[in-house]
Amino acid sequence: MYSRKLLEEFTDPKNVGVIEDADGVGQLGNPADGDVITIYIKVRDGILTDVKFKTFGCAAAIATSSMVTQMAKGRTIEEARRITKEEVAEALGGLPPGKMDCSNFAPDTLRMAIEDYQNKHNI
Amino acid sequence: MKRIYLDHSATTHVDTRVLEAMLPYFSEKFGNASSLHSFGLEAAEALSSSREQVAAALGAEPQEIIFTSGGTESDNMAIKGSAYMCSSRGRHIITSVIEHPAVLRTCEQLEKEGFEVTYVPVDNEGILDTQFLEDSIREDTILISIMHANNEIGTVQPIKEISELIEGRGIVLHTDAVQSVGKIPVDVNELGVDMLSISSHKLHGPKGVGALYLRSGVNILPIVQGGGHERGLRPGTENIPGIVGFAKAMAIAREQLEADSRHMQRLRDSMVEKVRSRIPYSRLNGHEIKRLPNNVNMSFRHVEGESLLMLLDMQGVAVSTGSACSSKSQKASHVLTAIDPGVDYIHGSLRFTLGRENTMEEIDLVVDLLEEAVIKLRRMSPFEEGN
Question: What is the ipTM of this complex?
Fold first, then answer.
């Protein structure tokens, strides 16, 4: 079963949406597998000033997406890149055993968005 | 918060009349039906009248009813028992791709033991391809097991047609009727089956009890060894309170079938119509007409079923989904995969299974909550426009 914290995050997710002029975009997953996460980042002076997501998936996928965007916002690129699945899971009060892979999914997508930003800006 | 239960294909609450019938058999009438004294006699009488009630509800003879622990055991007993009995004559079995795991896993086990199994496909509406089935029949085919109604999408299979197809060919026909009994007429002679599995808790009886109908003259080997209970086919002291409750539930289901079925179908059709008109890009999974009167299985484009289920649960509405997320990727159920509603819909399915006590007010409220939940999730979906 899901933790109370995860369910709260799932029902009231933060940072849902698209950043139209995003500096970096990451997308992971496959609609055929039942989950897709897209994360948009806005970067100023090496700091993630805005982070938004759109997710198709289970409650864990949505809650971890929301949590990772909140953890990344206001952090430096280096800090955001180092967010681990364990940190995300812990912030949500833990994940059911079968869902641990979900918590990997959101930080990996964030890392893809950061890479996208770095490629675009030759960093 | 008022809770609304729309998961009657998972299980049902025990009817108060059933509970009342059961209670004496836990305490004062606790005897073992095999005992020779008066306590035993009380239990034996209860067992005997329960057998008559269950048989009558199915158009069967009392001696054709074997009490079991439920649908899974009945399916195992029917398939393994029949396969082992007939193995000298042949080792080929036919079933379908959309059977319950109790049938599929049992068939897979028999494959490991040297039997051959053909899995007949279904069309996009979940109806069995009877031509494929007919073409699959071989000289060494000994058993056909096709469910009466599907547990996920509620499609009702042409069992009578299959029985006519194989008449006189010496093939044993089994059907898993766990979902159909109490929803649509189930008469073993009308269907023409040799074996039929039933579960008590799907029809407002207690859990842990069910039956296998075994036609007179059809023989199976026991899969559990022990005493002589249930003609030696299901040894073990009989679960008298459970059996009494099950029989009462069967009698009620039979008596109320027409009214219950009409009521549930009215709710079902109204729900499907309202969902279709209110929620764009929703689709009904399964057959429009050839389905159980209490089954509404719908998919919603670009949203995921488990998320929908969780949002509804938070509003007190209990439903189920064919999209169970396990580890890395969410696997759609084997039934949804078989009918293939397309990549945009396959993970967005919800199953609403109605009960005789649900009301139109509840259905209206659920449609409202469902619409809100779909809108909310679509707003988050990367496949949908907008911020």
Answer: 0.94
Range of the domain at B248: 16-253
The CA distance from B342 to B102, in Å, is 27
Identify the CATH number of the domain in which residue A42 sits.
Answer: 3.90.1010.10
Say whether both B316 and B361 belong to one domain.
yes
Confidence at residue A3, expressed as pLDDT on a 0 to 100 scale: 94
CA angle B343, B344, B348 (to 5 degrees): 105
> Which chain B residues are within 8 Å of A7, Cβ to Cβ?
310, 314
User: Alpha-carbon distance B182 to B60, whole Å?
Assistant: 16
pLDDT given at position B328: 46
The domain tally of chain B equals 2
What's the first-to-final CA gap in chain B, in angstroms? 32
**Which residue is associated with the tokens 């299959």?**
B162
Which residue among B19, B137, B221, B325 is the active-site one?
B325
Cα B217 from chain centroid (whole Å):
26
Which chain B residue lies closest to A29 (C-alpha atoms)?
Answer: B329
Residue B314: CB atoms within 10 A of its CB come to: 15
Residues B333 and B277 in one domain: yes
Q: Which two tokens stand for residue B156?
A: 């009702």
DSSP letter assigned to residue B285: -
B213 lies in the same domain as B340: no
For B225, other C-beta atoms within 10 Å of its C-beta total: 7
pLDDT along chain B (387 residues), means of 10: 95 98 97 97 98 98 98 98 97 98 98 98 98 98 98 97 96 98 98 98 98 98 95 96 98 98 98 98 97 98 95 96 60 91 94 98 98 97 82
> Burial code of B48-59, b = ≥16 C-beta within 10 A, e = fewer?
eebbebbbbbbe
- Does A67 contact chain B (CB < 8 Å)? no
Token pair recorded at residue B348:
């967005």
CB B177 within 8 Å of CB B198: yes
> CB A58 to CB B327 under 8 A?
no
- Of the candidates A25, A62, A105, the one whose C-alpha atom is nearest the C-alpha of residue B380 is A62
Partners of B302 on chain A (C-beta within 8 Å) are 56
Instruction: Give me the pLDDT at residue B330, please.
Output: 56
Asked if residues B160 and B343 have their Cβ atoms less than 8 Å apart, the reply is: no
CB-based contact (8 Å) between B328 and chain A? Answer: yes
Closest residue, chain B, to A98 (C-alpha): B327
- Cross-strand bridge partners of residue B214: B195
Kind of pairing, strands B317-318 and B141-145?
unpaired
State yes or no: is B325 an active-site residue.
yes
Cα pseudo-dihedral A88, A39, B326, A98, rounded to 10:
-10
Q: Average pLDDT of A45-73? A: 96
Q: Would you call B296 helix, strand, or coil by DSSP?
A: strand
From B253, B285, B318, the end of a domain falls on: B253
